[in-house]
Write a structure and sequence with these properties.
219 residues, mainly alpha, Arc Repressor Mutant, subunit A, Tetracycline Repressor, domain 2, 2 domains, 9 helices
């Protein structure tokens, strides 16, 4: 074998990836570091080394560390948002929609809870995604309020209040799944039953309609 061939064999070949795939790879590496070692272990140099690319190439995709981590956090939020949109479009009725959207959040937090929580505990990172996250939450709540008013015939202010309170209640249940102190199926069942019971109680208290009529969702 010639010297030239020996050199070529010794040089580690790099896989050429499309920009979006390379970007996703960098985020995947960052997620592994955050989960395994914490946010403090993340650096552009470390990510380049673990992704087998140069630090300069990492900077081609993300201008700084906080932007990279914020993009990673937003990616997790987007996964849930896309799942919820699909559920809203395909659910047969309100109870199924509540159950499936609750399950999506619980399953995601069981798998990615440590990652999401560690990223959200970074003020600079959270600040970069807060406006998008708040906008998505407002759109989601507005959709739920519309469904609740349609199904239970509740006054607007009561529908807004009960949707916000039920959302907070479900969020509280997520921590039990993250901590693995209560079985996911138990948390799901409790969340769904408590949400539906709260809506039925609001309807009875404020002259609404019993959901037993099984009205279809507004599509």
């Amino acid at each position: 074998m010639t010297l030239e061939n020996l050199v070529k064999t010794a040089v580690k070949k790099r896989t050429r990836l499309a920009p979006e795939k390379r970007r996703a790879l960098i985020l995947d590496v960052a997620a592994r570091v955050v989960i395994g070692e914490g946010v403090s272990a993340v650096s552009m140099e470390r990510l380049g080394r673990d992704a087998d690319i140069s630090k300069a190439l990492v900077y081609n995709y993300f201008s700084n560390r906080n932007e990279l981590l914020a993009t990673l956090l937003q990616r997790e939020f987007d996964i849930i948002r896309r799942e919820n949109i699909h559920i809203a479009e395909t659910a047969r009725d309100f109870e199924e929609m509540v159950r499936l959207t609750t399950r999506v959040r619980l399953l995601h937090m069981r798998e990615k809870g440590a990652l999401v929580q560690r990223l959200m505990n970074e003020p600079a990172v959270l600040a970069l995604v807060r406006s998008i996250h708040d906008k998505d939450k407002q759109l989601s709540n507005r959709y739920l309020v519309k469904q609740v008013r349609h199904l239970y015939n509740l006054p607007l202010e009561i529908a807004i209040a009960v949707v916000d309170m039920c959302s907070s209640m479900t969020s509280a249940g997520l921590q039990f799944v993250v901590d693995d102190t209560v079985d996911l199926r138990v948390v799901e069942e409790l969340s769904v039953k408590m949400t539906l019971a709260a809506l039925d109680a609001a309807a009875q208290e404020h002259g609404g309609t019993d959901h037993a009529e099984h009205k279809p969702l507004i599509k």
